[in-house]
Amino acid sequence: MASALHQLLPRLSGIYRDPQRVLRDAESLLSSPLGHHLRPTTEPLLNNDGTATPPVLVLSGTLPMTYRGVTYNLPIDMFLPPPYPLRPPTVYVRPVSSMAIRENHRHVGLDGQVYLPYLHEWRPTSHDLCELAVWMSSTFGSDPPCYAKPVKPAASAAAAGSNAASYTSSLSSSYCGNTNASSADELRRIVIEQEIADANLAAETARKAAVEEARLEREAVQLKQQHDVQLSGMKQMAVSKVQFRMRQLFDESKVELRRELKDQKMLEAGKTRIDHLLKEGEERKALLIRENTNMDEAISNLETWIEAVQQQKDKSEAEVTYSDNEEKIDLQTLPADTHSAQLLSLSAESAAIDDCIYFLDRALVKGSLPLDVFLKEVRKLSKRQFMAKAHLMKISQMKSLSR
Fold first, then answer.
1. Number of Cβ within a 10 Å radius of residue 71
2. Could you tell me which residue ranges the SB domain spans (predicted)?
């Protein structure tokens, strides 16, 4: 079987996206007990829209299923479409001439196509052909998709009639052959006839009882099937409702969890901001305390200074009061106008430059000042003294002209 599969796959090159996965899944199914009667072949797959695919791998044969303790072989064709394993396989039930597909079957259409939850929920990473075969065997074992067509009763009735006629003719001939027998034989014949009649009556009664028992058993089986179907439907309905409610609860919980996470993030951000504001407030509080302390010290110093100034003012007022009529010599040395003040300032600057040049000369003589530094400083001072003397001469000319 594996060799036939390996011979077919090169003919399907370019059909499948993952030929190794196709080979692996097909070999697993063919080597399993459920796929022992399947044979690999190639055939185009006809889609529902009327289009057909190129020839694809088909696992054709029978699938064993157990119904009421008896194992039956269900003929199937399992097509692996080109997108496999992204798309689930397409499975058809192929009944033989003596079988027919049940109408309104839950998992098989009138065209034989199989519809299972396993195919509807197909996932490439978690589903494969072996599990699909197990699902089909289990599902069809509890609810077979096919039934045997009823046999026409003409042949059986004819056979039964011929048997009854032969039995009656033989019985009549035996009775006629014994008409000339002795009385003992006649008595024995009567006893035998009575026993035969009793046996026929008992057989007829047993047959009727068997027919009635079979009818009751069929009715019980039908009731059990109806009960099983109703129970299965109720179970499926309950499972659907529970799953729907669980999905609702899951969605509500997810929304609530997202909202709680958003609120938690907002609270954490608010806490961080409040901590930052508290820290900043503590720092500003400490800064204000320091500034307040410094301000208190400044106010104290200012008050001390004001007191000292006030005391000096009082003392000055007392001195002015005491020497009202005496003129101080310092007031007489003050310049009378702006030009006089400039003349006094420039004369003092020129005299100071003379003193500075003198001391620079002394430092040069003593050797504590280098010659280049001495020359540089003397040049700068001489330039400044020249400007001061020129300014003095200009102010003197201005004063003489104004007079």
1. 10
2. 337-403
CA proximity to 133, closest of 75, 79, 64: 64
Window from 179-188, 291-300, 356-365 with minimum mean pLDDT:
179-188
Task: Report the topology of domain 2-148.
Answer: Ubiquitin Conjugating Enzyme (3.10.110)
What is the SS3 string spanning the chain?
Answer: CHHHHHHHHHHHCCCCCCHHHHHHHHHHHHCCCCCCCEEEEEECCECCCCCECCCEEEEEEEEEEEECCEEEEEEEEEEECCCCCCCCCEEEECCCCCEEECCCCCCECCCCEECCHHHHCCCCCCCCHHHHHHHHHHHHHHCCCEEECCCCCHHHHHHHHHHHHHHHHHHHHHHHHCCCCCHHHHHHHHHHHHHHHHHHHHHHHHHHHHHHHHHHHHHHHHHHHHHHHHHHHHHHHHHHHHHHHHHHHHHHHHHHHHHHHHHHHHHHHHHHHHHHHHHHHHHHHHHHHHHHHHHHHHHHHHHHHHHHHHHHHHHHHHHHHHCCCCCCHHHHCCCCCHHHHHHHHHHHHHHHHHHHHHHHHHHHHHCCCCHHHHHHHHHHHHHHHHHHHHHHHHHHHHHHHHC
pLDDT in tens, 17-34: 888 999 999 999 999 988
Residues 65-119: pLDDT tens digits?
888 888 888 899 999 999 999 999 999 998 888 888 888 889 999 889 999 999 9
How many Cβ atoms are within 10 Å of 79's Cβ, its own excluded?
A: 19
| Spatial CA neighbour of 5 closest among 14, 15, 22 | 22
Residue 306 C-alpha from the chain's centroid = 79
**pLDDT per residue as tens digits for the range 289-321:** 998 998 899 899 888 888 888 888 887 777 666
pTM for this model (two decimals): 0.40
pLDDT at 49 over 90: no
Tokens 């309104």 — which residue?
A: 104
pLDDT of residue 162: 42
Neighbours of 26 (CB within 10 A): 23
For residue range 264-284, what is the model confidence (pLDDT) as tens digits?
A: 999 999 999 999 999 999 999
Average pLDDT score over residue span 357-381? 91
Residue 230 has pLDDT above 90, yes or no: no
